[in-house]
Amino acid sequence: ASFTDAGGNAYHVAGVMIDAMGSRTAEVYSWALRHRGRVFPWQGRQSMTAPYSMTPLEYFPSAKGDKIRIPGGLTLFRCDTTFFKSGLAAKLAIAPEDAGAFHLHRDADGELRQYMAEMSAEVWDDAKQCWINPKGRANHYWDCEVMVSALAYIKGVRNSRKEPPKPEATPQRKAA
User: Fold this and answer.
1) Which of 17, 51, 70, 76 has the lowest tally of Cβ within 10 angstroms?
2) Residues near 43 by Cβ (< 8 Å), separated by ≥ 6?
3) Rounded-to-integer distance, Cα 168 and Cα 147, Å
4) Whose CA is closest to 150, among 85, 94, 106?
5) What is the DSSP code string of 64-108?
6) CA 115, CA 109: separation in Å to the nearest integer?
7) How far apart are CA 55 and CA 47, in angstroms?
8) Structure pTM?
9) What is the pLDDT of residues 115-160, one digit of tens each?
10) For residue 128, what are the CA distances in angstroms to 47, 85, 106, 124, 150?
């Protein structure tokens, strides 16, 4: 899938992670199944021995407890939220002019106010050794950035760089 921004620039969406552990798990699995290979169900775990693990899913959950087979199955990505939240927080701490900094589009109309509020809703708790949301504020953007960080890690593109343009070959002059 691709989309075009207001400037006419086209962007290709290579992958999406979506939280599968809410009240709509079956719907998430159905959507992931329709977009297999591009949409990946996610389950955040506070602590794991590895940044992520992959769990094969063969059945949809059912309200009645029945098992409904998932044709071809799906993969659930269980991800260590402490690992990915800490990585995102470190990236946000990089000065904007330094390599690896986190950049956003300009804030011409103040549309980033809610984004910034949600990105700062969680804090590290030294006593509990985990990320917490002490005021119970909305943190949907934070969760989305954590999931996309995990997907970039899983796909091996979190630190990818664009290839520099190759110099054009200069024609050789023939000796007279």
Assistant:
1) 51
2) 19, 20, 21, 76, 77, 78, 79
3) 40
4) 85
5) TS--EEEEEEEEEEEEEHHHHHHHHHHHHTS-TTSTT-------T
6) 13
7) 16
8) 0.81
9) 999 999 999 999 999 999 999 999 999 999 999 999 999 998 876 5
10) 12, 15, 36, 9, 23
The one-letter amino acid at 27: E
Give the closest residue to 77 by CA, choosing from 52, 59, 47: 52
pLDDT digits (tens, 9 = 90+) for 19-63: 999 888 889 999 999 999 899 999 999 999 999 999 999 988 777
SS3 48: coil
| CA atoms of 131 and 129, how far apart (whole Å) | 7
